[in-house]
Amino acid sequence: LARAPLGLACRGRVVSESARVFAARPRVCARTARAAAAATTAMASGAPAPRALVSVFDKAGMVELGQGLAELGFEVVSTGGSAKALADAGVPVTPVEAITEFPEMLDGRVKTLHPKVHGGILARRDVPGHVEALETHDIAPIDVVIGNLYPFKATVASGGDFAECVEKIDIGGPSMLRGAAKNHAHVLVVTDPSDYSSVLEHLRGMREGSVTPEADSSFRRTLAWKAFQHCASYDAVVAEWLWREGAAGEGALAPPPEMAVPMTLQDTLRYGENPHQPAAFYLESSLGEMEGTGVAAATQHHGKEMSFNNYLDSDAAFSCVSDFTEPTCVIVKHTNPCGVASVSQGVDLLEAYRLAVRADPISAFGGIVAFNCPVTEELAKEIREFRSPTDGETRMFYEIVIAPEYTEDGLATLKGKSKTLRILEAKPRSAGGRSLRQVGGGFLMQGSDDLKPEDIEFTVVSQTQPTEEQMEDIRFAWRCVKHVKSNAITVAKGDRLLGMGSGQPNRVNSVRIALEKAGDEVEGSVLASDAFFPFSWGDSVELACQAGVKAIVHPGGSMRDQDAIDCCDKYGVALLTTGGIRHFRH
Question: What is the dihedral of CA 510, 514, 515, 521, to 10 degrees?
């Protein structure tokens, strides 16, 4: 009993013809022949052969695993397609119905749901009552369970209808895996094909006596954790789908009473926001993220490994640039856009890049550069060679360049800028997603902020009417302010950001910072505020008017809105509201 998977005192059976072992096919490899010989030897000796149950949908590596198990003297029991594939490869295999003495039924819905299977999986070999029950009911213990589940998520992704998706909800598989994982002290449970080789190595080591009890226990617990997590992630996707399909008559329109979000570890990061904080990056594997969009699903073509802060900054930059319809360049530093510029279709994108840098070259140095259109060889050369406007000599340095596409020559040229420059390629995200944010002991969930200027009705509330050019600038500034941390102010003119103020605890300081960054170019510009102005005279609105701003947009809704109107009327500045729509970002 000390080495449960390789021989159990409670087993007193001999595999015989009555067990309907599939015969090895005539044309088999030498390894398969050895496996068959090992199984035959075990049967002839009358020794209780250990038993492995194989029932997988993903059959990658299954034949090699079956061959390895047979070589170790295991009786391989299998179901349906798995049994056929093993038998076709020449692996001696016992069909599960020979164990249960009951055929598959209900179109395959019932195969392994039987006491002869689950009794063999769940019985504790160290409990006399369990051993006695097995002997009484002629149930042989199962020592290894190998399984993975029906492709439910892939079926949903392929557009399967409701009935088809329901049929791909696995029942028997999770039952076996959970049972084996619960009884992991006596049963090895394997769900990941990448573990097959290490499982065989472990079993060989146990047979040779080279595996310590401590190592055996740790290995089993790791595999048990994998099995439970595999089932939990699978069930989370099924639950998400059922809610989305209209559970409780509400579906995706209401937050579910309970929710689990499946995630897969993509990388262990060097550290978090600071060196003393451990960190990792996970990819969400829910149905809502099947499109593979955004920074999380980006391809890294070049450069150093991504850091915690790199992911945050890249997400901010790409989210911002993806909001623009015209060819645009966005430069971000510490998640705030410090440079934004757009050009008309057909105009050289190089000019947008240059204007984005000039908005704040000091902040742009060491930042993240994002584009919403392909990076060509010409643009890559400009990024590689462009000198800082502050001195005309220093070549601009960036942490990351991210775009939806690169030409072959563009990518090759950009790689030549620096060995460390991270080059990311990502798909823009679709509207209608959700956002989860952690707070101490819980999470906040909200819909993504998808509103764009095209979705908003701007209302002029001042005597002065904005010109058509000013309206274009208003829409541009409003698009930018959405991506700036509150309290957020943007100053813009001619489809380029001149200055922004972010993250200040009072709005007037954000206005001062934005105007200071805009400098001499503030004359004739427009200003956008992510929320209403609580004060106007001697405060935010009057400061902007006195500086030369000619049009202002804010949500409105303050009890002092009339003060803002009166102030703008005094200075001949156009004032617009968004009907209360705001873009707080904390």
Answer: -170
Rounded Cα distance, 171 and 238, in Å: 12
CA dist 197 and 203 (Å) reads 10
Two structure tokens written together for 115: 């006491």
pLDDT per residue rounded down to tens, the chain (586 residues): 333 433 333 443 333 333 333 333 333 444 444 444 444 444 444 456 899 999 888 888 999 999 999 999 999 998 888 888 889 988 888 888 878 776 776 766 666 677 788 888 988 888 888 888 888 888 889 999 999 888 888 888 888 888 888 888 888 888 889 999 999 999 999 999 999 999 999 999 999 999 899 999 999 999 999 999 999 999 999 999 888 888 655 545 678 888 899 999 999 999 999 999 999 999 998 888 888 899 999 999 999 999 999 999 999 999 999 999 999 999 999 999 999 999 988 778 999 999 999 999 999 999 999 999 999 999 999 999 999 999 989 999 999 999 999 999 999 999 998 999 999 999 999 888 888 899 999 999 888 889 999 999 999 999 999 999 999 999 999 999 999 999 999 999 999 999 999 989 999 999 999 999 999 999 999 999 999 989 899 899 999 999 999 999 999 988 999 999 999 999 999 999 999 989 898 8
- Quote helix, strand, coil % in the chain, to nearest 5: 40, 20, 40
Strand ranges for 343-415 from DSSP E: 367-371, 398-403
Contact 336, 352 (CB under 8 A): no
Q: How far apart are CA 429 and CA 435, in angstroms?
A: 13
Distance CA 474, CA 533 (A): 17
Q: Kindly report the pTM of this predicted structure.
A: 0.84
Instruction: Report d(CA 263, CA 278) in Å as an integer.
Output: 18
Q: What residues act catalytically?
A: 182, 334
DSSP codes joined into one string, 96-130: HHHHHTS--BTTTTBSS-SHHHHHHHH--TT-HHH
